[in-house]
Every structure is written in C-alpha cells, then in structure tokens.
C-alpha cells in the first residue's frame, strides 16, 4: 500500500455564530511515488519485530507508538522469514474490535501470516473447553466462568495443556486490560507455553478495571500481571519499549502523549495526571464550545474520519439524537458484544432453488446484491463458505450449515464489522484501539475524588485524548441534554426520567434506551403483533434505504403469550416489526407493573437492517423456506415515551 503523506494545507471551517474561525487540516493524501510499498520500521520497532521465535518479550509502549503495527509485522516476520507455520502461532487480544483490527491489517498486508489464529480470550477459552471437556458444566457459564474453567483445565488436564505446549509462539495484545480471571488465564498460558512469546500493552490505557470489585486491584489495573511476568521470566525476558508516537500528524493532536509515561507507572499520581490532561483539553485551541454552536462545525469536520467520544453511552445516545435532529449524519458505535450480520446474508437464503447452490451461482447473485455494500463478492463468498464447515468442497455451499452457524452466533468477525462512517459517536471504551483524524472529547469534568475511580477516569481521559491524528477538540454538553439520564442497573439500560422521579414513580418516566434485540426475531415480521404478508415485509426491508430512518413504536392491542405488551415498529406509516419479550420485560421494570404503558415510543432510529435466524417451523408455515433466516430492523436510541391522554384507556 502506498505510504500516505499528508499535505499541510488548511481550510477554514464554518463555525457557529460568534466563534472565531479555526483552521483544520484538510484530508488531501499525496501519493509519494518513491515510498516503499509498506511503511518502514523504525529501529525500535525493528527490535521488536525481528526477534527470533523463542524470544520472550514484553513490549510496553504508549498510545500510537505502533504496537498493533508491530504485532502484524512480527507475525509476518515469523511466518515469512523464520519459516514458522501459521498454525503454530496464536494471537490473543482482549476485545473483538482489536481482533478484527489485527485480522484486517493482516489480510491487507496479504502475508501468509493471515492464516494465524487471532482470537479473543473468551473465544480461546471456549475452544479449549469444547475440545478438552465437551460435556462440562462450563456451557452454561458466562464469559468469566468460562475463562476460569479453562484456566483450571490448563492447570490440571494434560490434554488441555497440550494445546499450548505445542505452540511455537504466543502473542498477547492489550495486556494492560488483563485483570482478574483473564490475568490468571494468561499466566496459565505463559507457564505452559513451550516456545516464545510477545506481550504488548500500554499500562496507561487499562480501562477495564471496573470489572473488578476490589478498589485496590481496580486502581492497580494490570500492574500485578506486569510484575509477575517480569519476575517469572526474569532470566530471559526482553523487556522493551516503543517511544516514538507514529499516529499524531499535527502537534495539536498530541498533547496527551506526554502524560503516557507518568500514567503507566504503578505508583502514578493519577490526580496530577488527570489535572494536566484536563488542563490541555481546556486550552483555547481545543475549544469547540457548547453544542448549539458546535454542531455545524462537527458536521464540517466529518469530511474526514471524526469521532465524538463520550464518557457514557447515556451521553452518546442523547448526543446522537441531537445530531440526528439537526440532520448531521453519523453512526453510533455499537458495543463490541453486538454481532450484527448484514442484510445481504439473508438474501442468499431466498435466491436459489437448491439448499446447496454452486459457487458460480452464489458469486453471480452477490455481484448484483453487493453493488452498494462495502464488501466485494469474492470476499463475501469466502466468509460464507467459511461457515459451512465443508472445506473439501470448494465449489458449492451448504446453506443449512450456514444457517446453523448463524443461529449459534458462530460467525466470522469480518462479517459483523460495522459499516465505515466518517462521523462516529462513541463511548471512550468502544473507541479503544481506534484512531481518527479529528477527535472531539466530551468534557468529563473533574474526577469524582474516589481513589479507584480517579485511576480509571484518568486512563479513560488519556485513551480519549490519544485517538486523534490531526485535531483534538473539547465539547461541552448542555446540562438539559443529560439531566435525568441514569443507568437502571436492574435492566442494564440507560433511562431518562423527569426530575424527582429517580426513586419512585412520582412523575412519569421520560424514556428508555432501545437495544438491538428489542425487535422480535423468532417469527418473520407480519406474522405476530400485526398482520401483513411476510414476504412483502421482507421485500420492503431489503429494498428500502432504512439506515438512520426514524421509527416509532406504537402500542399494539395484542399481548404476547406471556401477557407482555407488544409494540409495532412503524417506519413512515409501514409496520416493519414487533417488539420482543426482552423489551417488554425491561419496559415493565422501568415503568412498574401497575402503571399504564406509553401509547408510543418515539425518537428512535434504525441502526441497520440485519439478518437473524428464527424458528424453522414459523419459516415453513409462512412459506419463507426451510431455514428460518430473515431480516429485522435493528433499532437504536433513547426512546421517548408518549403517554395516553388523561381519560384514555391505557
Ligand atoms: N513505522 C511506521 N511507519 C508509518 N506508520 C506507522 C509506523 N508505525 C506505526 N504507524 C502508524 O501509526 C499509527 C498508530 O499505530 P498503532 O495503531 O499500531 O499504534 P498502537 O500503539 O497500537 O496505538 P494504541 O495503543 O493507541 O491503540 C497507525 O496509523 C500506524 O499505521
């Protein structure tokens, strides 16, 4: 790929009334014909990349210094230069986003290393358990339970230990997030690993300590794991750092990086670092101002990759609604746990007369279906083919097997990658590991003063402020936007309540966060909750541009089998879905069983139309084929309740 350089041209950006113009670097890539086909490693990066396969290495490096970049190049080095088989290397990372990032960079590099197994800790733990203890009780356990069970198995079962002992090289990314069960899992892996390892991380970016209950451990983050690695492998550990920031192209975007070293120390003075970071953020050159003036500037900036980073998803939801109302196109970043299968996949299940269409027929269908999609037909075929499990037959695909894998949620990460967007509204947690030309940080205010929170809040602010390449700005959210917005722990959703209504139903509830699984998937739309020809609704979902379109939930006269209130999803007067039981349950918990239900829920949008797998019986009964695969609208937003008028039945 050509080395991309950036011109230093600037153009004035339109700002809200009363604000002085600021100058923003323009995205104008200049092709350098003398540049090598892939970026040149710096000396310190080469030292990391070109260690032999047995090396045991701990790389501690600040944000943007090229950890992911080095990881990808190290894999290529091991496979291409050291002749290590891709099957003998394992890469583990904390988040699905990071795994996806590594896989994408490997596949872009086109190296033989793209066949290396890259997984999250959860996925690898599940793999060990399903091979070494297929009938174990771990199947009903959550993520932490599975990781603890896999750790136990590694320490007690020779079979399980064999997986790891045979590896020639283990790479662990995002080491700073390894606390609790995951830290123990990695310790067990490292103790068993016969070959070398490469551990990469930035202690200043450890932001998952909140998963721990003990405040002292939370404050320490992964410091205990780092200390253990240094002691356990003291004899032959290569303990190295990367010091040069490769991300920042404009010095205004780099103000946070100086704080990285201070923040990564085990005895960091978090209060002082937070103060320094926030002082930089409060500087006049970062000033974007209040939202009413700032939104046109945000819209202008979004001609280049831009992110607005919020401390909580409650803020992100409210800000997203505000931007939508003003016509500012953007994508609200989903949780890494959401596995959203794109709509084109459902199209495969109705396109052919056979359950095993040929590669040729599938490619011809995909060429036509993917004209507007950010994925090529050949790539789409490869992903689908990976799910049918029949590697022997490359010339056709078994759609029954693909449907079964979809139903189990066992889908390639590349298939569920979110569509690219120039403007992203995200929480800081969801933006970790990502980079943008422009980053607008919602001012978090001073830290609360709680010791454990102070460490976490400081690391979060550092992560947010270290994402930009060119421009770092600060946004103040008006208090009326976030007033009354709380996380309801019982339903694990953000809600908005009128003042005075936090603890009891004094006033009426204002609204509730809507989530992806709030639309019923078990039956095709039109067959429960409202009546419409199911195939016609599917055609409408497949052929209408619905992303970001506003929708309303309208209270149905029907209740479901569990006597839960149903709502019909309306887009532009057309019914396109019905709410699920999980929505009804959460609504009941938020409002209270004894109170009237809202007539409507408004201020919602369609995040995308996604492929889901429901009941095969419902599919056959409704003439929708044998697989039970169809489309449903995925909704997003902080829904606003519209209550029945006094005297009307509720
Ligand atoms: N030697 C290099 N030449 C050119 N670009 C580089 C080089 N090393 C890294 N980069 C670029 O610098 C940016 C930051 O690199 P990378 O994302 O790997 O950093 P990181 O340490 O993983 O960051 P973070 O911890 O903040 O997520 C990327 O755009 C990457 O392509």
UniProtKB/TrEMBL annotation:
Residues 40-650 form the UvrD-like helicase ATP-binding domain. The keyword Hydrolase applies. Residues 1-42 are annotated as: Disordered. Residues 1-14 have a biased composition (Basic residues). PROSITE patterns: UVRD_HELICASE_ATP_BIND. It comes from the Bacteria. Keywords: ATP-binding, Helicase, Hydrolase, Nucleotide-binding. PANTHER family: UVRD / RECB / PCRA DNA HELICASE FAMILY MEMBER (PTHR11070). This is ATP-dependent helicase.
């Amino acid at each position: 790929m050509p080395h991309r350089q950036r011109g230093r041209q600037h153009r004035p950006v339109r700002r809200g009334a009363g604000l002085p113009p600021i100058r923003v670097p323009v995205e104008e890539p200049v092709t350098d014909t003398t540049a090598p086909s892939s970026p040149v490693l710096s000396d310190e990066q080469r030292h990391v990349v070109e260690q032999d396969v047995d090396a045991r290495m701990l790389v501690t490096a600040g944000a943007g210094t090229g950890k992911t970049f080095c990881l990808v190049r190290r894999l290529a080095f091991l496979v291409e230069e050291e002749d290590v088989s891709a099957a003998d290397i394992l890469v583990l990372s904390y988040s699905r986003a990071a795994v996806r990032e590594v896989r994408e960079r490997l596949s872009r590099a086109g190296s033989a290393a793209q066949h290396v197994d890259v997984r999250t800790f959860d996925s690898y733990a599940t793999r060990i358990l399903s091979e070494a203890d297929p009938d174990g009780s771990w199947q009903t356990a959550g993520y932490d339970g599975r990781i603890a069970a896999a750790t136990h198995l590694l320490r007690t079962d020779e079979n399980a230990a064999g997986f790891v002992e045979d590896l020639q090289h283990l790479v662990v990314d995002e080491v700073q997030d390894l606390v609790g069960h995951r830290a123990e899992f990695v310790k067990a892996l490292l103790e068993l690993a016969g070959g070398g390892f490469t551990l990469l991380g930035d202690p200043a970016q450890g932001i998952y300590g909140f998963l721990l209950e003990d405040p002292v451990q939370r404050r320490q983050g992964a410091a205990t794991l780092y200390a253990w690695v240094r002691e356990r492998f003291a004899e032959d550990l290569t303990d190295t750092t990367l010091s040069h920031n490769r991300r920042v192209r404009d010095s205004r975007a780099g103000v946070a990086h100086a704080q990285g070293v201070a923040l990564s120390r085990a005895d960091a003075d978090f209060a002082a670092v937070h103060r320094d970071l926030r002082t930089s953020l409060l500087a006049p050159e970062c000033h974007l101002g209040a939202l009413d003036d700032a939104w046109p500037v945000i819209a202008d900036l979004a001609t280049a990759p831009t992110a607005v980073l919020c401390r909580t998803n409650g803020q992100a939801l409210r800000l997203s609604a505000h931007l939508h109302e003003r016509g500012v196109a953007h994508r609200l970043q989903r949780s890494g746990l959401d596995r959203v299968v794109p709509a084109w996949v459902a199209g495969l299940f109705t396109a052919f007369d056979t359950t095993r269409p040929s590669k040729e027929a599938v490619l011809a269908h995909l060429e036509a279906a993917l004209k507007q999609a950010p994925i090529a037909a050949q790539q789409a075929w490869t992903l689908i083919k990976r799910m049918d499990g029949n590697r022997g037959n490359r010339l056709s695909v078994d759609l029954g097997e693909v449907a079964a894998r979809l139903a189990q949620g066992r889908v390639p990460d590349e298939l569920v990658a979110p569509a690219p967007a120039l403007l992203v509204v995200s929480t800081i947690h969801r933006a970790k590991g990502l980079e943008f030309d422009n980053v607008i940080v919602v001012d978090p205010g001073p830290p609360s003063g709680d010791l454990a929170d102070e460490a976490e809040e400081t690391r979060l602010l550092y992560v947010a402020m270290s994402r930009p390449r060119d421009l770092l700005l600060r946004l103040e959210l008006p208090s009326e936007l976030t007033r009354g917005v709380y996380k309801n722990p019982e339903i694990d959703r953000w809600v908005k309540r009128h003042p005075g209504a936090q603890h009891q139903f004094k006033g009426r509830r204002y609204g509730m966060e809507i989530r992806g699984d709030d639309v019923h998937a078990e039956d095709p739309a039109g067959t429960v909750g409202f009546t419409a020809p199911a195939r016609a609704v599917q055609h409408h979902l497949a052929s209408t541009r619905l992303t970001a379109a506003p929708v309303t939930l309208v209270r149905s006269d029907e209740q479901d089998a569990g006597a839960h209130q149903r709502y019909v999803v309306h887009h532009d007067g057309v019914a396109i879905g019905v709410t699920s039981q999980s929505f009804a349950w959460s609504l009941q918990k938020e409002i209270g069983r004894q109170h009237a239900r809202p007539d409507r829920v408004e201020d919602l949008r369609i995040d995308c139309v996604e492929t889901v797998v429901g009941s095969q019986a419902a599919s056959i009964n409704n003439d929708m084929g044998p697989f039970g695969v169809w489309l449903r609208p995925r909704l997003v937003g902080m829904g606003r309740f519209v209550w029945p008028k006094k005297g009307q039945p509720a």
